[in-house]
Amino acid sequence: MSPCSGIGLALCERLLSQDTEGLQLCLACRNMRRAQAARWALLSSHPAAQEALLQMDTSSISSVHTAAQEVKLRYNRLDYLYLNAGIMPNPQFDVKGFFKAFFSRCVITMFATGEGILTQKDCVTPDGLQQVFETNLFGHFILIREQEPLLCHAGRTSQLIWTSSSNAHRSAFKLEDVQHQRGTTPYSSSKYASDLLSLALNTHYNKQISALSLTHTHTALTCCGLYSSVICPGFVMTNLTYSILPSFPAFLWTLLMPVFWLIRMFTNTFTLSPYNGAEALLWLFKQKPESLDPQAKYHSLTSGLGNNYTQPQKMDIDLETSDALYEKLLQIESEVRKKLKEKTKGLQYSCSTGIMLTHNSGMESIYSCQAGDQ
Ligand SMILES: NC(=O)C1=CN([C@@H]2O[C@H](COP(=O)(O)OP(=O)(O)OC[C@H]3O[C@@H](n4cnc5c(N)ncnc54)[C@H](OP(=O)(O)O)[C@@H]3O)[C@@H](O)[C@H]2O)C=CC1
Ligand SMILES: CC(C)=CCC[C@@H](C)[C@H]1CC[C@H]2C3=C(CC[C@]12C)[C@@]1(C)CCC(=O)C[C@@H]1CC3
């Protein structure tokens, strides 16, 4: 289990293996030591690859802000922004629930979505936000907002691609509690929120939906060729999934592989390897964004014989809720920015008294842009 070995790293490897002339990758990671290791691993198999590193922690607004400023200095346009960072902290696995579902008609759904057998314990970040919400959704939202000038260009398109999940459920999400302060399934809530937000971003940033929903008054102001899509990688063996059964040593997961291959005969969502899980991410890279369905989730799937393919499935989302969430995120953004400004004022004072601050320090969001952009 090497660090930075998840779906994000597999996507980089697969992108570099394509004949994509002039591709420039920028890997935004929270831990620069792990980022450097990932960079070396990619360079060893693709020595001519153009890869840059960037420090960014999506659970810290100031880190996202600093990273966004750096990107603006380095590039003048971004063609693809992969929003991949995600956490499931302190997962609790309901063994009783697992066996109950195992001997019921819901067994396939349980293996495909993890529905009903997983809860998490969330905490609050120094920004005063719920950690899962900020890491999996809000940090990315701030990044998109700050990168608008690089993403919105007349006459050409850019793509936002969210790594969502089959674990995203409407029942876990409440508009009155978008951060999921009161529930026990913040991961599911954050992933459902990313599905909603993707739809809202399409409403606000391109003509695809705004043409359908004429009620959006300010759409025309921000309209540009920015398209957002959502993928589900399936069930993949990564650091995130290993942490679900912490008492389970890694070799036991390996011993379970024949069982998982057997389960794959019944549910093609058991993609299992990060390479397979990255299938839909790579597929989207090759599509014309205008041809994509903003209400669909694109699933990486692997057949019983091990063949990979991508399939769209309609999401359980609606325009009204997605727009309401977008407005709430804008509101939280303005509150957080206000707090941050006040903090910065305090910081200037602290610095003059000699206090030094350090940043807390993976592969998560990948920006990719074509040659000749710098
Ligand atoms: N594995 C699965 O079965 C599924 C995964 N997903 C989603 O796929 C995405 C990738 O996960 P996966 O590859 O499985 O798991 P990993 O844990 O391997 O990858 C998650 C990546 O996100 C990074 N990350 C976590 N928190 C932050 C942060 N605050 N700031 C910046 N980066 C951060 C991690 O960095 P670091 O290396 O430093 O820990 C890591 O590189 C996630 O969004 C996950 O929710 C969705 C469905 C199923
Ligand atoms: C035989 C045996 C021990 C099976 C393991 C069962 C569970 C640990 C997995 C079955 C379906 C998995 C799953 C996820 C986590 C692990 C399982 C519950 C996710 C919830 C991981 C994160 C996601 O985003 C979606 C995954 C869906 C399937």
TrEMBL record:
It catalyses: 4alpha-methyl-5alpha-cholest-7-en-3beta-ol + NADP(+) = 4alpha-methyl-5alpha-cholest-7-en-3-one + NADPH + H(+); 17beta-estradiol + NADP(+) = estrone + NADPH + H(+); zymosterone + NADPH + H(+) = zymosterol + NADP(+); a 3beta-hydroxysteroid + NADP(+) = a 3-oxosteroid + NADPH + H(+). One of its GO terms (biological process) is estrogen biosynthetic process. The keyword Lipid metabolism applies. The chain crosses the membrane at residues 240-263. InterPro entries: 3KSR/17beta-HSD, NAD(P)-bd_dom_sf, SDR_fam. It is a single-pass membrane protein. The keyword NAD applies. Its main location: endoplasmic reticulum. Keywords: Endoplasmic reticulum, Glycoprotein, Lipid biosynthesis, Lipid metabolism, Membrane, NAD, NADP, Oxidoreductase, Steroid biosynthesis, Transmembrane, Transmembrane helix. Pathway: Steroid biosynthesis; zymosterol biosynthesis; zymosterol from lanosterol: step 5/6; Steroid biosynthesis; estrogen biosynthesis. It is found in: Endoplasmic reticulum membrane. Its EC number is 1.1.1.210, 1.1.1.270, 1.1.1.62. Binds to the short form of prolactin receptor. Belongs to the short-chain dehydrogenases/reductases (SDR) family. ERG27 subfamily. This is 3-keto-steroid reductase/17-beta-hydroxysteroid dehydrogenase 7. It comes from Etheostoma spectabile.
